[in-house]
Amino acid sequence: MSFITANWNPLGEAFYRKSELYEMSWNLKDGLRDCLVSAAPYGGPIALLREPHRRSPSSRPQLEIYSASGVSIASFPWKSGPVVHLGWTVNDELLCVQEDGSVLIYDLFGSFKRHFSMGQEVVQSQVLEAKVFHSPYGTGVAIVTGSSRFILATNIDDLKLRRLPEVPGLQGKPSCWVVLNQDRQTKVLLSNGPELYILDNTSCTVVCPPGLGPQAGSIVHMSVSFSYKYLALFTDCGHLWTGPSHLQDKMSEVDTKKSTPPKEMVWCRRPKSQQPSVVLMWERLLMVVGVCQDTIQFPIEDQCVLVGELDGVRIISSTNQELLQEVPLVCQDIFKIASMAPGALLLEAHREYEKSSQKADEYLREIKEQSMLGEAVRQCVDAAGHEYDTNTQKSLMRAASFGKCFLTDFSPDPFVSTCRELRVLNAVREISVGLPLTHTQFKQLTLQVLIDRLVYRQFYPLAIEMCRYLKIPDYQGVSRVLKHWASCKVQQKDLSDEAIARAVCVKVGDSPGVSYSHIAAKAYECGRTELAIKLLDFEARSGEQVPLLLKMKRSQLALSKAVESGDTDLVYTVVTYLKNEMNRGDFFMTLRNQPVALSLYRQFCKLQETETLKDLYNQDDDHQELANYYVTASYREKRLENRLSLLQSAVDEYNKAKNEFSAKATEEEMRLLRFQRKLDDEKGAGLLELSLQATMEALLALGLHKQAEQLYKDFRVPDKRYWWLKLKSLAEKEEWEELEKFSKSKKSPIGYLAFVEVCMKSNNKYEAKKYVSKVTPEQRVKAHLAVSDLEGAVDAAIERKNESEMGAVLSRCSASDRLLIDRLNRARPSTAKK
Amino acid sequence: MAAHLSYGRVNLNILREAARKDLREFLDKCAGSKAIVWDEYLTGPFGLIAQYSLLKEHEVEKMFTLKSGGLPAADVKNIIFFVRPRLELMDIIAENVFSEDKMHSPRDFHILFVPRRSMLCEQRLKEQGVLASFINIDEYILDLIPYDGDLLSMEYESAFRECYLENDQTSLYHTAKGLMTLQALYGTIPQIYGKGDCARHVANMMLRMKREFAGSQNQILPVFDTLLLLDRNVDLLTPLATQLTYEGLIDEIYGITNGYVKLPPEKFAQKKQGEASKDLPTESKKMQLNSAEELYAEIRDKNFNAVGSALSKKAKIISAAFEERHNAKTVGEIKQFVSQLPHMQAARSSLANHTSIAELVKDITTSEAFFDNLTVEQEFMTGVETDKVNTYIEDCIAQKDPLIKILRLVCMQSVCNNGLKQKVFDYYKREILQTYGYEHILTLNNLEKASLLKPQTGSRNNYPTIRKTLKLWMEDANEQNPNDISYVYSGYAPLSVRLTQVLARPGWRSIEEVLKMLPGPHFEERQQLPAGLHKKRQQGENRTTLVFFLGGVSYAEIAALRFLSQMEDSGMEYIIATTKLLNGTTWIKSLMDRPESQIP
């Protein structure tokens, strides 16, 4: 444990440490010499272009892509024009800026994605220097051209080229320049001889770093910090000026006593840095210059590349990779020699405890006396996060866990999450994966992005493992990974459609949130329509299947999927599409196989295209519906002849449908219509369109008894209904004699109570009474009551010996009917006895 | 305002609030003053979600009814069309938009489709050349509308017709979607039972949609234990019968639409003292009917014969409460009495209203016609002479009683006889065509298609078996203090509710035979709950079942289910959902086709 501080170097109040991340897996014959190198931050990939300026077609330069640990990912000969600069986008895509201003974008695996140009003028003037930079808007590219103009693209995914104003007196390229992001604006800071300029969209302003006298010389190298907040300037006299990037303050000025400009210069800070510094690299020397004016010097043997990170600097050489960083405060507290910080004591206590020494108790007591145990645990947990060495992590976590035992009310969450996160970090730091993320970087990057990066690098199993381990909801976790995996899988050209579909289905299964249609769309993009269709089969959401199927011209399949979904609007959509797409015959045939679609289309036609409806029924030999169609249509006709002819068609169809009743009813209607017209013509009776009953009613009202009689016979109207009709009609017209005659014409099929009641309705008691005697015994009481003949009712009821009838009569009797009541009451028990 | 929605076992106000939130969000999308152009059909259902005040708060200044021609003038920034996705409405909208351009007043157009946007309609707008005129085209997913504390309705009038006549299952798709929304708010329903083709279809869609949404499912403890999906055509009989509960009768006689009833005004005339009541109000009285009204909640589900005594009991309580004032001696007591006064006055006016309504209803129910009609219905339900031409029906036709009444009776006879003898069948049809007009042949064909009216085919009449097994007829129905659901029809126990009751106990297995006689498959599905969401039931805690009537439900059936919920030993509470609240009349009406004659 005592070695932990072995690689610590004091710088001012703080310490810096340089720890090894990897022995590089690559085997570079010529080291990093004569290479264009670009390594992405956050432990990103490294791109390497050997001898970029070699232009003989016989031996093209080789472009190589490695993981941060030096595992080869891709390698291919560079066949395009000379490359000026390499850079990585935030999405780990490689940008190759060529001399002619075109920028080629490759993915991590060296496949060409697309390209864009920095402008027509650049083709002529050529790119002298280029820089790739990151801003909140994405990844940008800045170039300086042969005609000394700066051109910017702030976001390559939303390309808008900006030509910055001219810099007075600039010939060729400036001695040095950087891109700044200030106040949501992208600017260029450049030095030309003794002058320092800021270039923004509209102007070129001379600036002067405060406190940097002319004696310091002109600026030959500059560097901006990871966050764009700080600036370091190196002058030709070897002075290093540092300050905030808005150039209104100065932090320090250090004389490095070096007369040559460094090859590379990078800020080394961390969030809440105590002692920020600038790392400068010369041929054989690495110098860390603190703002406090202290320096640390490391000799270097090999050509190196510096990669600025959020919380340190990675130093990549041909053999190994190191991380140089300020030791986090909490680690200093714990590991500093003779530290009495609670965390340090706790670590010591645990160490003694493991040795079974009673000293453990002493240490613990000491912490507890200061009530610092909680703090001690927190320190150990935090420090563990910052340590790279797994043994150190473990001992710190064990100490924390030990301390936790003596705390009653302490949230386990930070402990648990740190454990989890360390496991994840250790896994991705593995040389085979090669993502040397620090805990701080990981937090900044977020878990989501880390998973994305793993997925992008095709570490699918690890990504899934991680999602499961961290219990990320499937939607954002496993499913997302599977989706990417499947999208990648469908592009594998060496596998058959069948094999891929099966593989995808087995792995993805019913994973929530994985859209098979998305995968299928990918397959379709790659020209694998059959595979796409196979994959679409697994899609649960028909709404998603249908549009793609239509796009792939599988309209029949689209129709059946739409039907399956139950979403009628979707079915309609496909049907309309098919209608425009197919000839009528095929269209009808297709519908015929899809009853649901067919009935929906019928509905549509009913409202919109009635003619088509007829064709549809015709095709299906649906005579019943066809007949109904003709009936409906007949009512739309304005002329009777047309209506009759349509009704005739209806009759034919009803007959074909073996619907005898309807056929006959329709024929009768036709007969009735003809009859009505005839009478209308002859007598102006206004009968047309009346029902048979209403027609007879009208005829009777007009006194056309004969004609009514004729209808009654012709249409075989049931006696009962006709009698009712005639009875009412005669009563209404008060033709009482006629009524009496009618009642005697034959035995009434509706009985005679009806006569009584109808007469009473016309308030003719006299006539009503005539029929009372004819009423059947069952209804006689009712009849008597109807004409208010209580006495008759009493007689009838007693005669019938019917209890309930007697009751009914009784209820109609008033007090003055004493006699009747008595008679009834006398009769009642006698019925009861029987 | 909608507190009555939250009193029940399941707080349906959550659903209403969710719907209101969506509405507010949409309105706020259209910044500035607005006018809403309504598809008239939607105003009723929307009234259950939001009153005008809510719209006003979001700068809705004018409201119009959608009709062809130009839009009325209104000085507003936005015109919003609230419409159902129907092609004919799109044409009207296009017309509106076109006429607007001529007047060169720059107003922004928006469309809100209810309950779902439709590609077909948007295509139509595109063809009409107006699609680009719309700034927002959105959908307002309003499938299930909270109607009362235990009642949800889609207010989808044509659902039954579409499903059984036109083979158009749009309503079922909306049903499934609505149930998904419900599950998103109230948790996954672990058990699904169903009977009927439509029920099967809805369940299939739900399971499929669940797969679609898999993983995004919320972690809500399920409120509903069971979902029961019932096709209306499983029980065609019940809605045909005249409902005999208070609410059912109000609906039968006056018709309740979207929770409101319009009553003849005479009985409600305010008779102020000393003022002669010579000018009677001529406008009908509109009343909202729901459980927010304490008295109504108490009596709505009673058999009408028990309403009178309930009202007089209530009257005594209220007058006793008013008498209390004489006992109030101290200032404190008076204060307390006064504080209760508003509540008491509300109770008194509610009592007055319902006494008037009950009188109105009673005038009808005591009439001979009503009695005769009921007698015939009950004869059919008990299977008396259902295979002959019924003289009462014959007489009614001869008297030209309303056609729908005739159709209800004939259909009922057909259903109770498992189809009519061909001769009887043809006779009725002929009578109807000759009396009411040939055009009704289309309606008769429709009824036939829906199996409401059919000729007997070879198979024997299985209605008696169903009636006996399910105890559909109870001789001794107790109307005052019911002990069985049959009180809602004074003897007839609604088949649909019996099925529900048997499902809860002892289970459908006991009635397999009968289930096979009823149309469509019966089934059971389980939905996997996420771990940790399995309910730990307290001892004696009731289970909750959502009963969904596909194709409509009557108030009497609802009353019967409420009765089951209240039964002490049932152990089950029911929430009811449906496509539409209906009665025999509105139902038959929805199945009628009546071509308009063009002959001048």
UniProtKB/TrEMBL annotation, chain A:
InterPro entries: VPS16, Vps16_C, Vps16_C_sf, Vps16_N. Its main location: membrane. Gene3D superfamilies: Vps16, C-terminal region. One of its GO terms (biological process) is intracellular protein transport. GO terms for molecular function: actin binding. GO terms for cellular component: CORVET complex; HOPS complex; late endosome membrane; lysosomal membrane. It is found in: Late endosome membrane; Lysosome membrane. Residues 5-416 form the Vps16 N-terminal domain. Pfam families: Vps16_C (PF04840), Vps16_N (PF04841). Keywords: Endosome, Lysosome, Membrane, Protein transport, Transport. Residues 514-817 form the Vps16 C-terminal domain. It comes from the Eukaryota. It is a peripheral membrane protein. Core component of at least two putative endosomal tethering complexes, the homotypic fusion and vacuole protein sorting (HOPS) complex and the class C core vacuole/endosome tethering (CORVET) complex. Their common core is composed of the class C Vps proteins VPS11, VPS16, VPS18 and VPS33A, which in HOPS further associates with VPS39 and VPS41 and in CORVET with VPS8 and TGFBRAP1. Interacts with RAB5C. Interacts with STX17, MON1B. Associates with adapter protein complex 3 (AP-3) and clathrin:AP-3 complexes. Plays a role in vesicle-mediated protein trafficking to lysosomal compartments including the endocytic membrane transport and autophagic pathways. Believed to act as a core component of the putative HOPS and CORVET endosomal tethering complexes. Belongs to the VPS16 family. This is Vacuolar protein sorting-associated protein 16 homolog. It comes from Zoarces viviparus.
From TrEMBL, chain B:
This is Vacuolar protein sorting-associated protein 33A. It comes from Zoarces viviparus (Viviparous eelpout). It is a peripheral membrane protein. Pfam families: Sec1. Keywords: Cytoplasmic vesicle, Endosome, Lysosome, Membrane, Protein transport, Transport. It comes from the Eukaryota. Belongs to the STXBP/unc-18/SEC1 family. Gene3D superfamilies: 1.25.40.850, 3.40.50.1910, 3.40.50.2060, Syntaxin Binding Protein 1, Chain A, domain 2. InterPro entries: Sec-1-like_dom1 (IPR043154), Sec-1-like_dom3a (IPR043127), Sec1-like (IPR001619), Sec1-like_dom2 (IPR027482), Sec1-like_sf (IPR036045), VPS33_dom3b (IPR043155).
